[in-house]
Amino acid sequence: GKFGVGFYSSFMVAGAKGVEVVSRSASLSQDAPYSVWSSDGIGSYTIDSSSSAPSLPQSRGTAITIHLSDETADYADAGKVEAIIKKYSNFVTFPIHLDGERVNTVDAVWARDPGSEKIEDETYDAFYKYVANAYDEPMYRLHYRADAPVDIRALFFVPTYHTEKYGMGHMEPGVSLYSRKVLIEAKSPDILPEWMRFVKGVVDSEDLPLSVSRERAQDSALIQKLRTALTKRFTSFLAKMARKDPEKYKTEFFPEFGQFLKEGVCRDYPSQDALSKLLYFDSSKCENGETTSFEEYVGRCTPDQKEIYYLVAPNREAALNSPYFEIFLKADREVFFVYTAMDDFVMTNLGMFQSRKLVSAEKGEIDLPDDSEKDAAAEAEEKDVDPAAARLTDVQTGELCAWLETEALPDRLAAAKVTHRLSMHPAIVVGHESGAMRRMMLLVNQRTGGEGTSGKLPKQTLEVNPSHPIVVGLHALRERDEDLAVLCAQQLLDNAIIEAGLMDEGGRDMLPRLNEILMRLTAKKDSDI
Question: Where ATP is bound, by residue (predicted)?
Answer without folding.
Answer: 62, 214
